[in-house]
Amino acid sequence: MDFDYLKSKWHVCFPACIPFDGMVLKTEYFSSAFPLSNAEGRLREFKLINGEFTRDLAVNECRTNYTDLATVYDQQDNIKLRTLLINVTGYPSGWIGAQIGSSSKKWSNGDEVTYKKDFNMVCGETCCAAMKSDGNWEALKCTETRHFMCYKQDVGQASYVLIPENKTWFEAQLYCREKHTDLVSISNEEENQQVWNEGKKSITFWIGLLQDKVEWSDGGQSTYRHYTERLGEGDYTIMNQDGRWSRRKDDNNQHILCYKSFIHVSLGKMSWEEALDYCNRYFFGLLRIESEDDQIETERELKRQNILEPVWVGLRQSRTFGSWIWSNGLSVGNWTNWKEGSPPEHQVCRHCGALEKVKGQYKWCDKDCRSEFRVLCEVK
Q1: Domain ranges of the chain
Q2: May I ask the CATH class of domain 4-42+262-378?
Q3: Residue 147 to residues 132, 139, 207, Cα–Cα distance (Å)
Q4: What angle do CA 122, 197, 121 make, to 5 degrees?
Q5: For the whole prediction, is pTM greater than 0.90?
Q6: Torsion angle of alpha carbons 318, 319, 322, 324, nearest 10°?
Q7: Residue 164 in 3-state DSSP?
Q8: CATH class of segment(s) 44-259
Q9: What Pfam families does the entry give (predicted)?
């Protein structure tokens, strides 16, 4: 579907290194198709479906009408879903996307585990990793208490903060997300050395590595967990009205908690101008990232779909003024996420904006508008 409409299009050729600011932006691209909206949570929302549904029916309902069963990334998500349940009469509970699958390792922030992939974690169904005073790792029950290492994602690189308080792994995760960015993740020997140097004052401290059997229906990379002490039986998960999770068998009847993503990732690759036409023709324009919340939601979607290469978004640079604007004509606001920390200087042939994965983070960068990448569109 991505390219059917392009087969009959004529294409404009641009001489090498001629400034590309002359893209024909049709007047309708600046129309009310781009309503101003609250940036917080505008790219994902939760939905409650009342009724009695088995797990299989719940998955089908969510995928048919929305995106999938709800993936819960943090405490804020859990509170929003619990609020939906509170508004239902009786004592309801509802299916969410967590399910029991194969045991696997995952970093708290969703990064892929590439360093020490063979690190042996044996301590029960759920294990968490801690760094010892010699820089080696050990696997512990996540309910044990230790000091812990957070990181703060600054421009270019992360800064590490050792917290000398004893908390369980999940308590430490919550603290790091509230005060900093997350529990620390480690992708190579150099980062391991940096974390060890920062944590030398502590005997043993949590890092962000978790091993358990929880997977998500949509393939999301969430490590947030909120199970009751009595897990229950079955391989699937419901949220109770108090916000706690329990396991159930698939034939149990429950309400459904779904989510809707407003981000579309194209299958095919195209130039920025073709991406602009594609997103306006079939969706609601190229993706705008207006806030940190928007950036977080976008990164979650890219990690969920395992997108590693650059992707186009609605950024472009004005040749006349040199400033960066969104494809609908709005100026880029105060919140940005440029790879180098500030907008790129005016360059020949690099007037279009993309997201590019840099050390596990998706940063804004400038690209030649004629390059062909997949594209992010907004869905409403």
Answers
A1: 4-42+262-378, 44-259
A2: alpha beta
A3: 11, 14, 9
A4: 5
A5: no
A6: 20
A7: strand
A8: alpha beta
A9: Lectin_C (PF00059)
